[in-house]
Design goal:
The protein is an alpha+beta fold. The chain has five helices and 14 strands.
Length: 289
């Protein structure tokens, strides 16, 4: 029997007692969201601890390792000194975020989607990140171009992986939203040997990766261009969106400068290599801004 959702408002959205359907949908399309996992009190606690950390970082009172300029494009670094769009290694700063990441619903879905010995990327690269995207003039992060997360580290043996995004704000055209190509996690997507940042693809990188050897039907655009088959993926406050590290995705800029789009995001991994050290220099950057 086909248990996939049939109405648009259910497309990719599952309740905490629907892990099996969420898994089935994820394997077919490369993403799935769980709705109703967190209570409003848990969301408020995460939000307050993230905003407090962001204020401390902007005021210069937090260790500089919790800030990053690697994720910021071009000459936007100056603005980052006045307003921090990102706070990295949030599990070191927020008990509520740590509890959220280890919620039983999250771990159960990870054990379904990854190998038994999956691990949280919490002390490497950027760890679990609080991300405040906004289109206003104070902001140096508004949107990100097409990529698969695997392309950020094609030389590392930490894949397959599943990324999670806890939504503190509902997404919309006004404050920005995720664009995805359903099913693209099946494609054997090339590492970005040509990319907009002229970033070097590290030695030892796999040429391409995905869940099958099937090549993509079209080239991944360098920046924000439309991809045949892409859809907009809107979430509510509290939704946990999971997406495959091979899924093609990008984020659209909000159209209302007064809005913000705040997330907590991170990833669980299942490759052979459990990273030691931060591995920041290993990060292959995508086109942002
Ligand atoms: Fe991504």
């Amino acid at each position: 029997m086909n248990t996939l959702p049939t109405t648009p408002d259910e497309f990719g959205i599952f309740l905490p007692d629907q892990h099996g359907q969420a898994e089935e949908f994820f394997r077919a399309y490369g993403f799935a969201a769980l709705r109703g996992v967190f209570s409003e009190a848990e969301l408020v606690a995460m939000e307050q601890e993230c905003v407090a950390a962001q204020e401390e970082l902007t005021a210069g009172r937090l260790h500089e390792r919790h800030g990053t300029e690697i994720l910021i494009e071009g000459d936007a670094g100056d603005k980052a000194n006045q307003f921090a769009n990102y706070v990295t290694y949030m599990t070191e700063l927020s008990p509520a975020v740590t509890a959220g990441v280890h919620h039983q619903d999250v771990l159960d879905l990870m054990s379904r989607l990854l190998h038994e010995d999956y691990w949280l990327l919490d002390e490497q690269r950027f760890g679990v990140v609080y991300q405040d995207a906004r289109p206003g003039p104070e902001s140096s992060y508004t949107r990100i171009g097409w990529h698969s997360d695997w392309q950020s580290g094609p030389h590392l043996d930490i894949w397959p992986a599943v990324a999670f995004t806890f939504h503190l704000d509902a997404t919309s055209p006004a404050n920005g939203f995720l664009r995805v190509v359903p099913g693209s996690h099946h494609w054997n997507t090339p590492a970005p040997f040509l990319n907009i940042n002229d970033a070097l693809v590290p030695a030892g990188s796999a040429e391409a990766a995905g869940h099958t050897s099937q090549p993509p039907p079209s080239q991944m655009p360098l920046r924000f261009e439309r991809v045949p088959g892409e859809i907009a993926l809107y979430c509510d406050r509290g939704d946990i969106l999971f997406h495959d590290a091979y899924l093609w995705h990008s984020a659209a800029r909000g159209t209302d400068d007064e809005t913000r789009r705040r997330h907590i995001r991170g990833s669980f991994h299942s490759g052979a290599e459990e990273l030691q050290g931060e591995h920041l220099a290993d990060f292959v950057k995508n086109a942002a801004r």
